[in-house]
Amino acid sequence: MTDTIPSEVASKAPAAPPSVSQIPADKWLKVGPDAGDAEYIAAPSLTYWQDARRRLSRNIPAMLSLAFIVLLLVAAIIGPWFSRYSYFEQDLALSNIPPFFETYEVETGTGETARFFLNSGNFKVYGVGPGGEVEGLLRATKKDLINKQHRYEFGETAVLMDFKSLPARMLDAETGEVIGTSGWSWNATNWFGTDQLGRDLLVRQLYGARISLTVAFVASLVNFFIGVFYGGISGYFGGAVDSVMMRIVEIIATIPLTLYVILMMVVLQNGLLSVVVAIGTVYWVDMARIVRGQILSLKQADYVAAAQTMGASTRRILTRHLLPNTMGPILVTLTMLIPSAIFIESFMSFIGLGVTPPLASWGTLTSEAVETLRAYPYQLFFPAAAISLTMFAFNFLGDGLRDALDPRLRK
Amino acid sequence: MIGYIIRRLLMMIVTLFAIITLTFFLMHAVPGGPFTSEKQVLPEIQAALDAKYHLNDPIWLQYFNYLKGIAVLDLGPSFKYPGLTVNEMIVEGLPVTMKTGVLALLCVVALGVPLGIVAALFRNKWPDTLVMVFATIGVAIPSYVVATVTLYIFALRLGWVPTFGLDDWRGFILPVLALSGFWLAFIARLSRSSLLETLNEDYMTTAKAKGLHPMQVLFKHGLRNSLIPIVTVLGPVVANLLTGSFVIEQIFALPGIGRHFVLSITNRDYTTIMGITIFYAAFLMVMIFIVDMIYLALDPRIKLGKASS
After folding, report:
1. Beta carbons within 8 Å of B115's beta carbon, 6+ residues apart
2. Own/partner pairs, B213-219, CB within 8 angstroms, 24+ separation
3. Between residues A275 and A183, which one has the greater pLDDT?
4. What pTM does this model have?
5. Among A383, A354, A388, which Cα is nearest to A366's?
6. In this complex, is the C-beta atom of A256 within 8 Å of any C-beta atom belonging to chain B?
7. I want to staple A142 with a disulfide (CB 3.0 to 4.6 A). Which of A151, A222, A335, B123 is the partner?
8. Annotated domain spans of chain A
9. Chain A contacts of B12, Cβ < 8 Å?
10. What angle do CA A231, A234, A235 make, to 5 degrees?
11. Nearest neighbour of A266 by CB, restricted to B12, B140, B265
C-alpha cells in the first residue's frame, strides 16, 4: 500500500523533463483533491512510548548524554577489571605523580641516555622509560639541604636538583648551567597520576564512578518506591487519608533535607549503605506529590470506573491501571532525582560523611585533591570534570525526557 | 488573612516541634555517648561528666529539659568545647554566614532575573543561547567544584583574590560566586520561562492593542506577572543558600555557622549538631514564612486561606 502512491505519481510524470520553465502553461494539469488520498494515513500511528522515544532520539544533546552515561556505566563496571592496580594499593615511593611531565635527558657517558623527570611538588626525581613509564624514585647521592641542592648521578654524569628558588630546576653539576627539558611525556604507568599515598587515580576515579552511580540509581529507586507508594495511596483514597498524608509531606518539605541527610549519616555512621539509606529515605517528597496529583486526576477516568465495576481490587487498579498511566511524569522526576542524588553523595563525601576510606567517591577524591591543591592541581581536575560532566549528562537527559514525555507539550 | 497567618504559625510550631523531637532522638540513637573516645576516662570523671550534663537522667527527662531550654532560646552547652555554649557559637558565626548569604541572595536576584529577561526577550537569538549555556553550566556544576576550581585559578594561580578570610571585599568574590552559582542559573532559567509564558498571555496582546508604550507593556504587564513564580521559590532559595554555605565556608575557611556545623560533625559534638540543626530549621521556616507573606501581598489573585493547597 505504501509503495503504490509514489509509483502512480511516477507514472504520471513526463519522462525526463527538459526544464520546468520550458513546459508551456497549457500542458499543466491541476491535480484535483482525491478523497481517498486525504483519508490515507501514511505512517503507522504511534503509541505514547513510541512517540516519546522518537522525540528523544531527535534530541541531540539528550542522546549524547545518554551515550555518555552508558559509556560511564560500562567503564565503571568493567574498567577496574582491566587495571593492574586496586583502589587501595599504596606505593609511597610513587606518590603524587602527575599524569604528564616534562622529561630531562642526560648522557650517562657510556653512550646511553638516562631519562628522568622532576616532580616540582615534592622535589623528587623519578626515572622515566622510553614510552613514558615511571621507573621509580631515584635516590640522591648527596643531599645538601643548606644550599638546597640534591645531587643525582647517572653513570658518569652528575646533575643537581636546585630548589633555592621555585619552581625547582635541574643544573649541570660541573658547569652549574640550567638543563633544558627534552619535552613532555604522558605518564604511561598511571594515566591519571597518583594521589598522596601513591594510589592509581584512574582506578580510584572508576571506583568513584561505581559509587556515585550506585548511590544515584539505588537511592533514586528507593525514593521511587516510597514516593509512588505514598503518593498513590494518598491520591487514590483521597479525603481524610489524603489530608493527613499531605500534611505530613508538607512538614517534611519544610525541613531542609540536606541537614537531615547529614543527621542520618551521623547516626548511621559512614559507609556506602548508610549513604544510600540516608538519601533514599529523604528525597521522595517530590515524587509523592507528583504521583498524587496525577492519580487524583486519573482516578476519575472511565477505565477506572470500569475496572471497579468488574470487581478489580484496589491494588490491581493502582498497579495495573493508574500507575502505568502516570509513568511519564514519574520517569521525568526520577531522572531529575539522579543528579541530585549524585550531588548529595559527593557533597557528603566531600565534608567527610560519605564512604569509608580507602573507598573513593568523586566527593572524597575532590576533597583529597583540595588538601594538596597548591602543589598538585591535576588531582582536582579529573574528579571535578567527572562529576560536572555526569551532572551535565543527567540534566540534559532529564530535560530531553521531559520534553519527550510531558503531556502538556503533546498538543 | 489573620486566620491564615495564625494557621501558618501553628503549622510552623508543629513542624519545629517535629524537627526538635526527631533531631533529639536521632542524636541519642547514635551508638556511644558523647564522651566516648579512644582515651580511657577514669570512671569518677565519667560519672562527674554524666552528672554535670544530666546524662544519667531518663531519656524522657532529658528530652523534656531540652525542650524547656529551647523554649527560652537556650540550646545548651557544647560537649567538645567546655565553657562554650551553642548559642555563643551561633552568635559568633551568624554575622559571617549572613554576610555571604545576603550577598549571594542579592547576586541571585539582581543578576538572575535580568539575565532571564534578556534571554526571554531575545528568544532563540545569541543572547538567549549565551544565557542558557551559562545557566546549564551553573545548574550542572556542584558548588564545591566551583569553589575549589575558582580557588585554584583565581587565588592560587593568578593571585587576584585572597585564598581565605573576608578581610577585604575581594575575599567575598569567590565564596559568593560559588554559593550563588547554582541558584543564579536556576533563577535565570525560571524567569526566562516565566516571562515567555506571560508574553503569550491574552492581556499582553490587549495591552499592545490599546497602544501602550512597549516598555510599559513589558514592565507593567509582563514583568510584574512573571515575577510571581520567582517570589515563590525565593524561600527555598534562601534555605539552600544557607545550607549550601557550610561546604563553602569550609573550603574558604570562613568562621561562619556552617563551619561550626561541619566541625561539630567531625568532632561528634552532639549538642552542637543538634542545636545548629534546630537553629537552621527554625531560621529557614521563618524565611519561608516571610516569603510566603510577601507572595500573598503581591498576588491579589490568590484567595486567602486556600493558598496552602
Report:
1. B131, B134, B135, B184, B188, B191, B192
2. B218/B121
3. A275
4. 0.78
5. A383
6. yes
7. A151
8. 100-186, 201-409
9. 254
10. 80
11. B265
Statement: A201-409 belongs to CATH 1.10.3720.10 = yes
Rounded distance, CA A130 to CA A139, Å?
20
Instruction: Give A339's contacts in chain B (Cβ within 8 Å).
Output: 140
Phi-psi region for residue B36, left (φ > 0), alpha (ψ -120 to 50) or beta? beta
ipTM given for this complex: 0.77
In whole angstroms, what is the distance from residue A140 CA to residue A129 CA? 19
Tell me how far the alpha carbon of residue B186 is from its chain's centroid.
Answer: 15
- A11-51 residue pLDDT tens: 455 556 567 778 888 888 777 766 667 777 777 777 777 88
Which residues make Cβ contacts (< 8 Å) with residue A309, sequence separation at least 6? none
Tell whether A164 is within 8 A of chain B (Cβ).
no
Name the one residue in this structure whose C-alpha cell is 641542592: A149
Confidence check: pLDDT of A330 > 80: yes
Residue A283 C-beta-side C-alpha neighbours within 13 Å: 30
Percent of chain B with pLDDT over 90: 0
Question: Are B214 and B204 in contact, with CB atoms under 8 Å apart?
Answer: no
- Closest-CA distance, B190 to chain A, in angstroms, reads 14
pLDDT digits (tens, 9 = 90+) for A91-150: 777 777 788 777 777 777 777 777 777 777 777 888 777 777 777 777 777 777 787 888
Residue A116 φ then ψ, to 5°: -155, 165
Residues A317 and A294: beta-carbon distance below 8 Å: no
Q: In chain B, what are the domains? A: 95-265 (1.10.3720.10)
